[in-house]
Write a structure and sequence with these properties.
15 helices, 4-stranded parallel beta sheet, Rossmann fold, 6-stranded mixed beta sheet, alpha/beta, binds ligand F0G, globular
Length: 438
């Protein structure tokens, strides 16, 4: 970390750029940039006290107090020098850490906790990165912002750009974005391009077009996005009284979040917020698992695939933050695995029926925890946080398909009846009898 000021540094060739430079990849070699900040002088208990004094989850936000945001509460570790007037926030973060016995039992992880990022303003963890990236866009006077997305990033960018009064342009794969996400993106007012291709095509086009047109790119290759997303980990550590869990399990697609979690743990250790690091487990969908394949070869080779999975959020074949993801896994003695679509849907049905609910990609974390418990990687008694990255209503299509299909193990099939009391009685008598419930 630099001693005197914040800067952007290329992770491949070391080129340094000013913190206010609008480019989001290295102008010399095209490598990824990371934001290096001057860490605060407080350490350990003093820093914990500073954050705790600003409150934690459940604090009622005062509209004048940026520190009530679950992202900006940690601003010294995120983006210390941004002026308050540039900050675009809607008190994102502040998401609950839940315990649901049925989910823990299904996963065979008794000490399982669920960090529910679906409770963010637009229903996914993306808001944590977007409040920082869009604030930075305002700070540098960007005329427009853009991104490629499988749906959540676009919904989040559209919302924060609207808050900031900056035009947003998003590129999403045509016919492959969950209904809730597309509806949000349109409603918040982003100019939405449905690309006849996949996410990887969208990202290529977004990178090229933002360079040519001078539009500020808000994908997770943008280091300010990563900085914001570190607060998922900082906040969950705070919720645990700064006692680190043994494992943090998260779904992985483009690897922005995996990179952010690695960065968060690096900072948390460097500043003495925690003394021991949790291990990271990144979980991919079987049909979109280039990172898991690379992991199995000891990261000897970077892989890419043509992605296919019901979890459209993580349907990504060539993750942009690959190197950062590798670093995060290596530094935390982490693991990468993949789970089948059937496991994802089963985990999701259990999470949904527990009253918590999440979108399909999110359930990969719980399906992954179950696998790791089964093969003994997660030991009995380990404290495990699984991150639920998106809200249940993001993907209503998949929910209805599941519950209308009576062959599914947890299907709750709707029953159509005539508008007569006898029909209601007939159904209820059956449902309330000891053998009649579904
Ligand atoms: N979970 C959800 C709900 C997501 O939307 C995403 C990514 C991930 C997990 C994976 O995170 O890409 O940082 O590894 N969604 C991006 C998007 C790609 O465009 O919304 P990642």
């Amino acid at each position: 970390m630099t001693a005197s000021r914040n800067l952007l540094r290329c992770e491949s060739c070391g080129t340094e750029l000013d913190e206010l430079d609008p480019r989001t990849s290295c102008p010399k070699c095209g490598g990824l940039l990371s934001l290096e900040i001057e860490l605060p002088s407080e350490r350990g208990a003093a820093l914990r006290a500073l954050f705790d004094a600003r409150g934690s989850v459940g604090t009622i936000p005062e509209s004048s107090d940026i520190g009530a945001s679950g992202v900006w509460r940690f601003r010294e570790l995120v983006l210390p020098q941004i002026p308050d007037k540039n900050v675009v926030t809607q008190w994102e973060g502040n998401t609950p850490l839940l315990q649901r016995e049925a989910v823990a039992r299904w996963a065979n992880v008794p000490e399982l906790m669920l960090k529910h990022e679906g409770h963010n303003p637009t229903g996914s963890f993306k808001d944590r990165g977007m409040t920082v990236a869009v604030s930075q866009a305002v700070r540098i006077g960007a005329s427009a912002v853009s991104c490629a997305s499988t749906g959540n990033t676009s919904a989040s960018l559209a919302a924060y750009a609207a808050l900031a009064g900056i035009p947003a342009i998003v590129l999403v794969p045509a016919g492959q974005v969950a209904l809730g996400k597309l509806a949000q993106t349109l409603a918040y007012g982003a100019r939405t391009l449905l690309v006849r291709g996949d996410f990887d095509d969208c990202l290529r086009l977004a990178r090229e077009s933002s360079e040519r047109l001078g539009v500020y790119l808000a994908n997770s290759i943008n280091p300010f996005r990563i900085a914001g997303q570190t607060t998922i980990v900082l906040e969950l550590l705070q919720q645990l009284g700064w006692r680190a869990p043994d494992w943090i399990v998260l779904p992985a697609g483009n690897l922005g979040n995996t990179a952010a979690f690695g960065a968060a743990l690096r900072i948390a250790r460097a500043t003495g917020l925690i003394d021991s690091s949790p291990r990271l487990a990144a979980v991919q969908a079987e049909g979109a698992a280039p990172f898991a394949r690379s992991f199995r070869s000891g990261f000897a080779e970077r892989k890419s695939v043509r992605a296919e999975t019901v979890a459209t959020a993580i349907k990504i074949g060539d993750p942009a933050s690959y190197e950062r993801g590798v670093r995060a896994i290596r530094e935390t003695n982490g693991v990468v695995l993949d789970v089948s679509d059937a496991e994802i849907l089963e985990a999701k049905a259990v999470i949904d029926a527990s009253g918590v609910g999440c979108e399909p990609a999110s359930a990969a974390s719980v399906a992954g925890a179950r696998r790791l418990s089964k093969d003994g990687t997660i030991s009995r008694g380990d404290r495990v946080v699984a991150v639920l990255t998106g809200h249940i209503l993001k993907d209503p299509g998949i929910l209805l398909d599941y519950h209308k299909d009576a062959s599914r193990s947890m299907a709750n099939t709707p029953i159509e009846i005539d508008a007569e009391i006898s029909a209601v009685e007939g159904v209820l008598k059956h449902a309330l009898s000891p053998s009649g419930s579904r």
